[in-house]
Automatic annotation (TrEMBL):
Cofactor: pyridoxal 5'-phosphate
Gene3D superfamilies: Aspartate Aminotransferase, domain 1, Molybdopterin biosynthesis moea protein, domain 2, Type I PLP-dependent aspartate aminotransferase-like (Major domain)
Keyword vocabulary terms for this entry: Aminotransferase, Transferase
Identification of the protein by name: Decarboxylase
Native source organism of the sequence: Aliiroseovarius zhejiangensis
Orn/Lys/Arg decarboxylases family 1 pyridoxal-P attachment site domain: residues covered: 269-495, 539-725
The keyword Transmembrane helix is annotated on this UniProt entry: no
């Protein structure tokens, strides 16, 4: 609109003016649908500009459109009134420059919008808005504008697409239908509660139902219900996100104060605020931190550059004190405790704990708190190494679960539900179900494969009703704040399960299925979607790398708990495990950043996640549609990364150059696995470079583009809430430049050089070694030869004595040992990095497939493997001695059992 109106204003009678006028009319029609749901510029201003256009005041229209565009781009409309008249321009230009400074932005009042839902005429709408405007006071901590929509459906459209909305006022005059027809609205209503049930409502039920529906898509918002119904009628209703009910009154001041109070409750950062106040206090430092208050820096002649780089505030806020308004992370009673409670509300848990040394520590805390020596734990074999070390510390008996392999890209997907159920049923048949304690899975995986969390838990609970679940959501912290993503998070699924298990409908369905499946064999159970008993216990833990996907300093993480037995069974052991792994000198800056990061996502997480997905989708589209990039690169789709049998919806790709965008709601609701669109895996084998070379030598060294993960022929680009469209554009420019250079190189190549290039591409794209499954634990470390769980702890500590170990060269002595027919058993974790999960664990038999895979690895870092010595294995003498020890222990256990 800006470009078209500016062109018309420059040449109103030109040869192209008729086409420009037609184009602008079309743009007005398109924008008319959008502007009704936003306070700025607002319907009245938009209609005024449209009338100016109809009266051929083209210069005024161009000026107003340019002013609106600039205000939207800079965010200036959030800070002050934006006049659209031409004679007000000069004064504002100077102010615009000043207000852009960081200091000025920090001092400006935060802005949001309030949606009023009521079917009113134009005069009544102005009256409503003016009443809210009159309530504003200078001392108000925030500034808001109002936007009025008439219907329940319009309100849903508004909160789906207007990220500025923080509060909704639902008045009794609202109607049901919107004049806007959007197919996306129909799909959303079906998911949120069903169109049929909504259409059957009486008009007086529209308000409460709207509050409930909004809670499904944006639970962080505040709603205020104005109603003329009796207290008795309202009391028994599910009011969703409704914070307060006003009974048939026009008390605008009370509404205004409640709106500000509701936003203030989310804006509040107890620990960050306490730390800021502490930094302002004059203190005498007599504790063990010379850097506190910056004294050791300000008095130095040699490290002044450090003080100049970081500035004074970070040192003023550095202390080991837990008093003076601060708190202890190990036993919080003040602002840290309150900050954790606010995080629990934001992420939908029952309890949330902060961690300042990463999610690796969070994983060990949860495992140690819940798993006792001898407990059986089902573990995703390619989960992060911290879980495997946690199994060692806890003394767990480990049953490793194999993910489906993606051999052509040298990566693993996720563990199929059928495999999980098979292992549980196998343990049940062996009479060991009482010893099974936990299922541990990664959601989502490093490469973006996401589980159907709720279905996994309900079917596992159908087999073992008290099973504990640990979902490693290190890469999925942002998911809570996107409506589509939220449904596949551990905490959301836990709350849904708790609610559903209490219903009479579920009890009836369970009893019916129980009767139908009586005496059923394993194959029938594997092919049936099992229902958990109503008495099943919902016991869910999720660990989250807040610093990886949200705003937090490095190593800032959280543990989210939704365990019905936490208070009675786990709390004491959890506190001990937390004490074991948490530093007595936690970094206060990390804790403060977790507090502020929580504030951000409660107030603008919805907006930032939308933008993150948009950036990733635009990257997918740009690469998929560029003819030059298609020669050397391929963006892996859901069809590439998830086998067909796990995609019930049949969705192959989120974007197709011929068909356009795909509606992903259906697959996210139905499919066993879905692909997180914010992770873009790019196959680079067509360039002739392996993934690690492409990452290090090309992207990082040559162009300064940083990424985490590679496989043999892929690189992973992860977008996050800080990713900008400019960053995406730069990446596309770099890829195009690389493709052009390859074109020129091949144009000038000799026949032999071209053959060499083609051979490298073939080796990377076609001649790939198959990914190995978990082989087995050696008999010396197995507690059962049938179910096969392994004692990883005994193997780990047996290797502490060097006399029990030997080293075999990967391309030499190891082949002779294999040919002898004796089992080779790993004495350590072998972990290629990235992605950071073991391909061998202590006590695991080394197979030919694993050795072949190790030889094909092209990463620069393999933890546990020494190039100078080789692979560390147990000696045959150590294995024989361990086998005797293990047999004696099993005999003793059998005697105890009898």
């Amino acid at each position: 609109m800006r470009e078209a109106t500016a062109a018309l204003a420059r040449d109103p009678g030109g040869t192209r003016s008729d086409k420009q006028i037609e184009k602008i009319n079309q743009l007005f029609e398109s924008l008319a649908l959008i502007e009704a749901y936003w306070a700025f510029p607002g319907v009245q201003a938009f209609d005024h500009i449209r009338r100016q256009f109809e009266h051929k005041n083209y210069e005024d229209v161009a000026f107003a459109v340019q002013r609106i565009t600039r205000a939207l781009t800079t965010g200036a409309y959030r800070r002050r009134h934006i006049p659209l008249e031409r004679d007000s321009a000069d004064a504002e230009e100077h102010e615009d420059e000043v207000i852009q400074s960081i200091e000025a932005r920090a001092l400006a009042k935060p802005y949001f919008e309030v949606m009023i839902v009521d079917d009113v005429n134009e005069h009544q709408e102005r009256w409503l808005k003016s009443n809210f405007s009159r309530m504003r006071r200078f001392e108000d901590p925030f500034h808001y504008e109002t936007v009025v929509v008439p219907s329940l459906q319009d309100a849903l459209i508004g909160i789906l697409f207007n990220h500025n909305i923080q509060a909704i006022v639902v008045r009794p005059g609202l109607i049901m239908e919107s004049k806007v027809e959007l197919s996306i609205l129909t799909r959303y209503l079906n998911r949120a509660g069903g169109i049929d049930s909504i259409e059957a409502l009486l008009p007086e039920d529209y308000g409460p139902e709207l509050c409930r529906l909004i809670a499904k898509v944006r639970p962080e918002l505040d709603a205020y219900l104005v109603t003329d119904r009796s207290v008795e009628d309202i009391a028994g209703l599910d009011l969703g996100i409704c914070r307060r009910v006003f009974y048939n009154q026009e008390d605008f001041l009370e509404l205004h104060l409640n709106i500000l109070r509701g936003v203030q409750a989310r804006y509040k950062t107890p620990f960050f605020t306490a730390l800021v106040e502490y930094s302002k206090q004059p203190t005498g430092v007599f504790h063990a931190m010379p850097i506190s208050r910056g004294k050791s820096i300000s008095r130095s002649h040699w490290i002044q550059d450090m003080g100049a780089f970081y500035g004074p505030n970070i040192f003023l806020a550095e202390t080991s004190a837990t008093s003076g308004g601060l708190d202890s992370l190990l036993e919080p009673h003040g602002p840290i405790k309150e900050a954790q409670e606010l995080a629990s509300r934001a992420f939908g848990s029952k309890q949330t704990y902060f961690a300042t040394n990463g999610t690796s520590t969070c994983n060990k805390i949860v495992v140690q708190a819940l798993v006792r020596p001898g407990d059986i734990v089902l573990v995703d074999r390619d989960c992060h190494k911290s879980h495997h070390y946690g199994m060692v510390l806890a003394g767990a008996q480990v049953v490793y679960l194999d993910s489906y392999p993606l051999n052509e890209y040298s990566m693993y997907g996720a563990v199929p539900l059928r495999e999980i159920k098979h292992q549980l049923l196998r343990l049940k048949a062996a009479g060991k179900l009482d010893r099974v304690r936990m299922l541990l899975l990664t959601n989502c995986t490093f490469d973006g494969v996401v589980y159907n969390v709720e279905r996994v838990m309900e079917e596992c609970l159908a087999i073992k009703p008290d099973l504990v679940f640990l979902w490693d959501e290190a890469w999925f912290g942002f998911a809570r704040f996107g409506p589509t993503y939220r449904q596949r998070t551990g905490m959301n699924a836990a709350n849904n399960l708790r609610e559903r298990l209490r219903t009479a409908d579920h009890a009836r369905a369970y009893e019916q299925q129980k009767t139908e499946l009586e005496g059923a064999d394993e194959e029938t159970l594997l092919n049936t979607r099992l229902l958990p008993p109503p008495a099943a216990r919902v016991r869910i833990y999720a660990t989250q790398s807040t610093h990886k996907t949200l705003t937090s300093l490095r190593q800032g993480s959280m543990i989210h708990v939704n365990d019905q037995d936490f208070k009675g069974e786990v709390e004491a052991s959890f506190q001990e495990a937390y004490m074991t792994h948490t530093s007595t000198s936690p970094n206060y800056q990390i804790i403060a950043s977790l507090d502020v990061g929580r504030r951000q996502v409660e107030l603008e997480g919805f907006e930032f996640v939308q933008r993150q997905v948009e950036a990733a989708m635009s990257m997918r589209r740009a690469i998929a549609t560029h003819p030059l990039l298609q020669k050397y690169f391929k963006v892996l789709t859901a069809g590439d990364m998830i086998p067909e049998q796990h995609r019930e919806s049949g969705v192959q790709t989120y974007y197709d150059p011929e068909q356009g965008w795909t509606d992903i709601w259906d697959c996210w609701e139905k499919d066993e696995f879905v692909l997180d669109a914010t992770r873009v895996t790019l196959a680079v084998g067509g360039t002739g470079w392996d993934g690690d070379t492409f990452k290090t030598d090309i992207l990082m060294d040559k162009y300064g583009i940083q990424i985490n993960k590679t496989s043999r022929n892929t690189v992973l680009f992860m977008t996050n809430i800080g990713t900008t469209r400019s960053s995406v554009a730069y990446l596309i420019e770099v890829l195009v430049e690389i493709a052009k250079e390859l074109d020129e190189l091949l144009d000038d190549a000799s026949i032999m050089e071209r053959r060499g290039f083609e051979k490298r591409v073939a080796n990377l794209m076609h001649d790939l070694p198959p990914l190995p499954d978990f082989s087995r634990f050696h008999d010396a470390f197995r507690t059962d030869q049938i179910t096969g769980e392994g004692d990883i702890r005994s193997a780990f500590f047996l290797s502490y004595d060097e006399k029990n170990c030997d080293y075999l060269e990967l391309d030499g002595s190891i082949n002779e040992a294999l040919e002898s027919g004796e089992d080779l058993v790993s004495a350590s974790f072998i972990i290629p990095y990235p992605p950071g999960f073991p391909i061998l664990v202590p006590g695991q038999v080394v197979s030919k497939e694993i050795l072949g895979f190790m030889r094909a690895l092209d990463v620069s870092e393999i933890h546990g493997y020494r190039d100078d010595l080789g692979l560390r294995v147990f000696t045959q003498e150590a294995l024989k001695q361990q086998a005797k020890t293990n047999a004696a222990r099993l005999k003793l256990n059998d005697a105890r059992h009898k």
